[in-house]
Design brief:
single chain; alpha/beta; Rossmann fold; Arc Repressor Mutant, subunit A; 15 helices; about 20% strand; disordered C terminus
């Protein structure tokens, strides 16, 4: 049976919202999912600043309104409804030019019975700003629905261009209440047991990096994301905090969860190593192996040995070196023999790994002469 495209890989999910949906998409393709929300969303339905901004816009409607997120825009209308201002807010926005940062915001705007005028192809606030500045904003009253971050650059640029800006803080991003899952994800990345980490918002990436800095492992985390671990972002805005640190990212052409997972699926071959071994094709993935396309579940100790052998394909790896590669280490080389026996059993093809008498073990690459039994 052909293995699912992400079978044998472990993928970290940092999303706070829609994490179950993303996890299900990954699991359906065979991935092992490690969920560690990097954020929590604090809605502000009773926040005095939100109430004041809403009343201000009801009394003096905006010329332009910018909806940045679907959940934020819906939350704003729900809060206004609770204050008895729902209908008046919708009426105030009906006469405004409504710009939507992306399709989710556009869906929320239309669900409210409003008409959206324009959305950027990139789904970025920067393109919204360029669009407004090109049209001219001097003397115009602009409502900006915030989405966790204050959007300081956008607001400052609009004001510098002569606009009157009313900020609408619907919710805030905060660190997760329980930091343990985030710490476990970071530790797993540093230990080499995570193959990819997914990000669906820029604040999630920022939060992960900030927590790593608090623990004194930020540089190590950045190094891992630059190297063996694949950073997968839903779009360029999400990738920005990582790009600033020269972390390469994988992004889909369209900023959608499904597209992001499919892009990771397309990248999967480069996350694995494939070898012609003893007449078979051996593919070494994060926590499993494929033999001729068939998935083989390998115990952690066996995977540690297999990764060490694959790091030096065809070359003899000494027992002492393999012992150091085992989880927990130790000083009894018998542990290597035990783990090796279990590895061979899990692979189902004992000849894939050859014993080199009095020296160690090696992968039996097809283009090398055998030198052990």
């Amino acid at each position: 049976m052909t293995a699912p495209p992400l079978a044998g890989f472990t993928v970290g999910v940092t999303a706070a919202r829609r994490a179950e949906e993303l996890g299900a998409l990954l699991a359906r393709r065979g991935a092992s999912v490690l969920h560690a929300p990097a954020l929590r969303i604090l809605p502000l339905p009773d926040d005095a600043q939100l109430a004041a901004a809403t009343r201000d816009l009801v009394e003096s409607p905006p010329d332009v309104a910018i909806a940045t997120t679907g959940i934020g825009f819906r939350g704003w209308l729900e809060a206004a409804e609770g204050w008895g201002l729902g209908e008046r807010l919708v009426a105030a926005l009906r006469d405004a030019t409504v710009l939507c940062r992306g399709p989710k915001a556009r869906g929320a705007v239309r669900a409210a019975g409003l008409v959206d005028a324009w959305s950027p192809a990139s789904e970025s606030s920067a393109e919204v700003l360029e669009h407004l500045l090109a049209a001219g904003v001097s003397g115009r009253r602009i409502a900006v629905q915030l989405h966790g971050d204050p959007l300081a650059e956008l607001v400052a640029a609009l004001r510098a261009a002569g606009a009157e800006v009313v900020e609408v803080p619907v919710y805030r991003w905060m660190p997760p209440a329980d930091l343990a899952p985030l710490d476990r994800l970071t530790d797993a990345v540093l230990a080499g047991s995570v193959d990819a980490v997914t990000f669906t918002s820029a604040p999630a990436a920022t939060s992960l990096l900030a927590r790593a800095a608090e623990r004194g492992v930020r540089d190590e985390l950045v190094a891992a994301l630059r190297g063996p671990v694949c950073a997968v972002c839903v779009g360029p805005v999400t990738a920005a905090p990582l790009s600033e640190l020269d972390v390469p990212t994988v992004q889909p052409a369209r900023s959608r969860l499904g597209a992001m997972v499919r892009e990771l699926e397309a990248q999967a071959p480069r996350l694995a190593r494939s070898f012609p071994v003893a007449g078979h094709v051996l593919e070494v993935r994060g926590h499993a192996a494929l033999v001729d396309g068939s998935l083989r579940a390998v115990p952690p100790a066996g995977m540690a040995l297999l990764r060490a052998l694959a790091h030096r394909p065809g070359r003899v790896v000494a027992r002492a070196e393999l012992l150091r590669a085992l989880p927990g280490g130790g000083d009894d080389e018998h542990a290597v023999e035990t783990a090796m026996a279990r590895l061979r059993s899990a692979l189902g093809e004992p000849a894939l790994v050859r014993t080199v008498v009095k020296r160690g073990y090696r992968l039996a690459l097809d283009d090398l002469d055998g030198d052990g039994g």
